[in-house]
């Protein structure tokens, strides 16, 4: 809890009540207080400690934003809707804000932006310190159980009655719902915000884990290669063969299945696809430059190699000529030959049969990944699904169903790929709400 010397009336009847002290909630509180210092602002959070998601993000370094953000980096809502939000609070503004509160950011080769200290704790502490400086009160262990609009009240009067599970009652003039989604429920984002929003007239698009590791069946041969990482293009295909989604990034093999940016980014698409098409397939290219290596060109190259070096072992030729970019590629190939292709890796090139050659080429271009599930909400970094943006006024992030209610961050049906995009969406929606509220309350 943040202790502020305020009259009790400012706590029980605040001008602005923010539900959720995560990234979006803290950011909204700070900007609301900066724009209109006369407002009494109270944040309620269900967890004992606030900012858990901030602390674990980016491997505990906090990937604050990305140097280039586009609607193409997001899923859920329309690109036009997302673009309107992103334009309202830019990356430059994000960088300047964190500079102001003592957090300098650095850009890494991937475009991700982290604090120069590589410490998520520094980011959270800076946000909390700014809240304290601005006189914002944060009450932890206060899980909201109900929100009841108080109809036909004058604008200067309380507009809601809010009750918490520990029997406290609050009567704010306006509310910002920043409860997050369902990902990492131990942080407090257990989906309860959706129940509150539904009671206030909102619908919820089906929610699933996103940015979540994918799992293989127990005993899958690739799990023995845990720790092996390589750049690849993952392709998600329908059972008809039609390509649904592709993503190029680094893939990490683990003891349970797949992780790394490639798997995490495609996970929301894989989960959505398999809900409608259980036989949708995921494959990985082992060839670094697929654009210059078609099935036909690879077959001609292998035929020519068999004539030039007939006694060369198959595994040596493939490793040297096609998989040099993969550390530990010989181990990977040996496993694939033994468990997937049933080919002796020491087969001389001249003795490779036509059927085996073609199976090998298909595998190099599209290694089947027998993904059967995902690691669930406890390991998901974000939620896919939520409140549709069609139910939100994007100029103020206010509800189209309930006056004086604003909804921001992960509770909305927008999820970004890995790399700071979800934080940027949180900052942008929070700032829009803060501006609107600060201007509307006297």
From TrEMBL:
It comes from the Bacteria. Pfam families: HI0933_like, HI0933_like_1st. Its cofactor is FAD. InterPro entries: BaiN-like, BaiN-like_dom_sf, FAD/NAD-bd_sf, RsdA/BaiN/AoA(So)-like_dom, RsdA/BaiN/AoA(So)_Rossmann. Residues 209-382 form the RsdA/BaiN/AoA(So)-like insert domain. Keywords: FAD, Flavoprotein. Residues 15-435 form the RsdA/BaiN/AoA(So)-like Rossmann fold-like domain. Signal peptide: none annotated. PANTHER family: OS12G0638800 PROTEIN (PTHR42887). This is Adenylylsulfate reductase subunit alpha. It comes from Poriferisphaera corsica.
């Amino acid at each position: 809890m943040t202790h502020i010397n305020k009259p009790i009336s400012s706590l029980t009847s605040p001008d602005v009540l923010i539900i959720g002290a995560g990234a979006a909630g803290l950011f909204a509180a700070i900007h609301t207080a900066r724009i209109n210092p006369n407002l009494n602002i109270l944040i309620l959070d269900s967890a004992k400690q606030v900012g858990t998601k901030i602390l674990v993000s980016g491997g505990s370094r906090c990937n604050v934003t990305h140097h280039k953000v586009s609607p193409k980096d997001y899923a859920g809502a329309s690109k036009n809707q997302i673009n309107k939000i992103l334009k309202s609070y830019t990356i430059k503004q994000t960088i300047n804000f964190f500079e102001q509160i003592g957090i300098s950011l650095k850009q890494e080769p991937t475009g991700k932006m982290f604090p120069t200290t590589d410490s998520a704790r520094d980011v959270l502490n800076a946000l909390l310190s700014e809240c304290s400086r601005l006189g914002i009160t944060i009450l932890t262990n206060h899980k909201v159980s109900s929100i009841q609009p108080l109809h036909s009240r004058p604008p200067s009067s309380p507009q809601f009655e809010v009750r918490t599970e520990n029997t406290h009652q609050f009567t704010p003039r306006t509310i910002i719902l920043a409860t997050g989604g369902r990902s990492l429920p131990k942080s407090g984002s257990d989906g309860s915000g959706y129940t509150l929003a539904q009671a206030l007239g909102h619908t919820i698009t089906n929610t699933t884990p996103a940015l979540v590791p994918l799992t293989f069946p127990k005993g899958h041969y690739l799990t023995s290669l845990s720790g092996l990482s390589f750049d690849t293009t993952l392709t998600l295909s329908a059972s008809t063969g039609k390509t649904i989604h592709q993503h190029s990034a680094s893939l990490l093999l683990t003891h349970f299945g797949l992780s790394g940016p490639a798997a995490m980014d495609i996970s929301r698409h894989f989960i959505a696809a398999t809900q409608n098409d259980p036989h949708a397939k995921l494959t990985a290219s082992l060839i670094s430059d697929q654009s210059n290596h078609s099935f036909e060109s690879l077959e001609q190259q292998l035929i020519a190699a068999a004539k030039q070096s007939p006694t060369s072992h198959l595994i040596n030729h493939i490793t040297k000529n096609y998989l040099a970019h993969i550390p530990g590629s010989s181990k990977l190939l040996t496993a694939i030959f033994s468990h997937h292709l049933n080919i002796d890796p020491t087969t001389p090139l001249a003795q490779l049969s036509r059927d085996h050659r073609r199976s090998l080429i298909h595998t190099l271009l599209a290694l089947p990944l027998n993904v059967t599930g995902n690691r669930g909400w406890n390991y998901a970094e974000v939620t896919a699904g939520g409140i549709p943006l069609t139910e939100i006024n994007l100029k103020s992030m206010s509800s189209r169903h309930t006056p004086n209610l604003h909804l921001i961050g992960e509770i909305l049906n927008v999820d970004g790929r890995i790399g700071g995009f979800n934080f940027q969406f949180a900052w942008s929606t929070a700032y829009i709400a803060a501006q609107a509220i600060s201007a509307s309350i006297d």
